[in-house]
């Protein structure tokens, strides 16, 4: 069957989630979860590559993109509960779940608490820190996410190879999310017990970092907590491999997926 691409709004108990479906009917499902202040289109350049193998579902997280606004601070568990409602809406089980940054935190929690829904897990550029480490970094985190408007020059330091068109999309998505939601997301990540969630994982897991990652302090955590999981470093990438080097991310995931087919 031919690949297709459709926007959808899936009704959940908390509101409607916006997303894009792209792939072949009957292909294995792949769930894509973006980073803080982003939206589904962070994966736009990778969708064709993934859709050759998967039926892809790229979501806008609650409070971000074109999904419903958050009514309050949410924990990571609340995000993953709503994402599972979307999977149920499409009758999806045994999904390969891929998340970047906060999307990775949600993916980890979903895989740990809903193992029947997650067949495989890909953790991309996802911070995992002690409370002391989070506290030490909190002021720059508030500066990064508490002020929505950033210059092109600033954004280009965050996203390798950023174009003016890419900056416009980056800026639009940050404004859709807003400072309150983005800082709230950082609190959710800070408060999430990532170690406990990882200890519950039963499925094959791949860990991915960019070679210029800004969260390098978390690499040893994953090596220690997931000693049997391959850890891949992608060239030409910082915190956004799906934007900066989508071909490398697609190849890494498909090569790993083929080993577990």
Keywords:
261 residues; alpha/beta; 44% helix
Short summary of the structure?
By secondary structure, this protein is an alpha/beta fold. It has twelve helices and eight strands. Helix 2 crosses helix 3.
What does this structure look like?
- This protein is of the alpha/beta class and 261 residues long.
- 44% of the residues lie in helices and 20% in strands.
- It has twelve helices and eight strands.
- The chain has an eight-stranded mixed sheet, sandwiched between helices.
- A hairpin with a 2-residue loop joins strand 1 and strand 2.
- Helix 1 (44-51) packs parallel to helix 12 (246-259) and helix 5 (138-146) packs antiparallel against helix 8.
- The mean pLDDT is 96.
* Strand line-up in the sheet with most strands: 1-2-4-3-5-6-7-8
Structural Rg: 17 Å
Mean pLDDT: 96
Strand content: 15-25%
- Gross morphology is globular
Q: What's the tally of helices? A: 12
Largest sheet data: 8 strands, mixed
Q: Cα distance, first to last residue?
A: 20 Å
Q: How many individual β-strands?
A: 8
* Oligomeric category: single chain
What's the SSE pattern? Answer: EEEHEHEHEHHHHHHEHEHH
Give me the secondary-structure topology.
Layout: E1 4-12, E2 15-23, E3 29-33, H1 44-51, E4 55-59, H2 76-89, E5 95-100, H3 102-113, E6 118-124, H4 131-136, H5 138-146, H6 152-158, H7 164-177, H8 179-191, H9 194-199, E7 205-210, H10 219-225, E8 231-234, H11 241-244, H12 246-259
Parallel strand pairs: 3-4, 3-5, 5-6, 6-7, 7-8
Antiparallel strand pairs: 1-2, 2-4
């Amino acid at each position: 069957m031919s690949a297709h691409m459709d926007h959808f709004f899936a009704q959940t108990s908390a509101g409607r989630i916006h997303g894009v479906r792209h792939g072949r009917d009957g292909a294995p499902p792949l769930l894509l979860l973006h980073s803080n202040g982003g939206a589904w289109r962070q994966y736009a350049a990778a969708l064709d590559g993934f859709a050759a193998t998967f039926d892809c579902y790229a979501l806008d997280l609650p409070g971000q993109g074109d999904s419903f606004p958050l009514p309050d601070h949410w924990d990571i568990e609340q995000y993953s509960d709503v994402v599972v409602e979307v999977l149920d809406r499409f009758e999806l089980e045994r999904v390969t779940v891929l998340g970047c940054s906060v999307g990775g935190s949600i993916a980890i929690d979903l895989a740990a608490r809903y193992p029947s829904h997650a067949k495989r897990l890909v953790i991309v550029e996802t911070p995992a820190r002690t409370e002391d480490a989070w506290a030490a970094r909190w002021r720059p985190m508030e500066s990064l996410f508490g002020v929505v408007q950033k210059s092109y020059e600033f954004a280009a330091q965050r996203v390798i190879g950023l174009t003016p068109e890419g900056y416009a999309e980056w800026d639009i998505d940050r404004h859709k999310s807003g400072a309150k939601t983005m800082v709230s997301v950082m609190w959710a990540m800070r408060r999430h017990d990532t170690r406990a969630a990882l200890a519950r994982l039963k499925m094959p897991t791949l860990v991915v970092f960019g070679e210029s990652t800004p969260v390098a302090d978390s690499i040893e955590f994953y090596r220690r907590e997931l000693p049997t999981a391959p850890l891949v470093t992608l060239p030409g990438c910082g915190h956004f491999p799906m934007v900066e080097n989508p071909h490398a991310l697609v190849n890494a995931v498909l090569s790993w997926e083929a080993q577990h087919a």
